[in-house]
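Work Package 3 (structural annotation) set out to generate three-dimensional models for the target panel prioritized at the project kickoff. During this period the team completed the workflow that converts sequence records into discrete structure tokens, so that structures can be stored uniformly alongside our sequence database. As a representative example, we reproduce one entry of 258 residues exactly as it appears in the project archive.
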Amino acid sequence: MFSTVWLAVIFTLTGAAVGSFLNVCIGRIPEGLSIVNPPSRCPQCGHPIRIRDNIPVVSYLLLGGKCRDCRGRISFRYPLVELLTAVFAWFLFRRFGLTPAFPAVFVFVCTLIVIGFIDLDHQIIPHILTLTGIPVFAVLAVLFMGLTVIDVFLGIMIGAGSLYFVAVYYETLTGREGMGGGDVNLLAMLGAFLGWKSLLFILLGSSFLGAFVGLALILFKGKDMKYAVPFGPFLCLAALIYLFFGNSLIRLFEAFRI
């Protein structure tokens, strides 16, 4: 028991460090920049970040959320991503332990974090993440997640086809684009890793979450009905809910249906 607790702590701290790297990905991938070089820099003045100022979460708190050199404000997104990644590392380790499924699911979750925050910041979902993720996560799902090739294939096809149909239908009715190809590719990637049975929940869950947030923005922020709310983060959030609670939700649904 003692060793298990310490392993969980180690993986949690490692998760926070990975979260620091995810911040680099979130900031650089939309700009087409290398995620390796140059080393981490202040987004305001471009000064390289010292090692002591690059400790996940802790450095942000000690510096008061400001750059040591220019005193420019550093986005709260940085410690948030680090903390989220650490928390997910903890829960995933507690659920999967030292099994091959743990790194597979952790990489999947990290990819969703990057995609979700990029879509929030830029309202785009980079194809390099989704189109690479579809075959990679399809293989991981078959090897480590217990899915069959048919489950994965149907997940990709139904995921891409369902959102593509919705996007075309919405644009035909309204004359404006409701969602881009990035959302279509993202749902295909989710179906590749979670299987086709997950897609109905992900679509309904993300639609409900998106409608709730959109209504809140209209009521409390004075936004109008045409305000663009990125759909990617809601797809990612619904996928994470399914990842952790999908089996329980399916059993609950079947119980009520009977």
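Residues 99-258 form one domain.
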